[in-house]
Specification:
single chain; alpha/beta; Rossmann fold
Amino acid sequence: MAARRPILGLNYVSTEREILSFIRRTVREAGAKGAVLGLSGGVDSAVVGALCVKALGKEKVTVLIMPSDFTPAADTEDAKALASNWGVRTYLTNISPIAQALSGTFGFDAGKIPMANIQARVRMVLNYFVANSFGLLVAGTGDKSEDLLGYFTKFGDGGVDLLPIAHLYKTQVRELGRRLGLPERVVIKPASPQLWPGQTAAQELPADYDRLDPLLCYLFDSKLSLTAAAKKAGVGADVARAVMKLHRSSAHKRRTPPMVKPW
């Protein structure tokens, strides 16, 4: 924990003010009537939801709660409680029947990753259906840690209109969540896209976010070498190499599609 405090310190008052201004400005400049987001019951979507309500007012925010057949009941209950507390318009639907119908279109059995990605993309299709129906923008819930690691689905949770917390690392998002008054169980909940039963970020990433965030910050903000960043962050060289491999292999997710003749 000691390693991440100096490098990841923030002025959370000015950070919140900056995000609120960004949300208001982006919605206004788009001529939209508000924002819609998928609310999972995890910290990222809870923070974005709370910020959208503060920025726009509850009457201009819509949330979609979109569990699958294996989403933990506690996550859905947390999402429902947050939405009820905010007083926002809320839609709840199970996405599994939609995902299963799509996956059966061509008559072959897809593997785990295609099935995971189709769920993330179904959620975004529903977000945009509601957004288009009511003149809203889709607020993304991705953070900087996930973005740098490529830990998101291309054209799924990565396909949005605005990203209010994409400049904040996961550990910073958790602290902002505390300052926004979110329930501690939501703030500290283990990260997971919940795209298959029992999925957690800890199983798929080289280390937990308390160890990854300082490393990411030293690598991409301070621009240190791999060896120096690993040493400063207090992690092994194997972790640092794994992080860089994830970052490089996911570069396509952070770029616009290539063209023969860029504009």
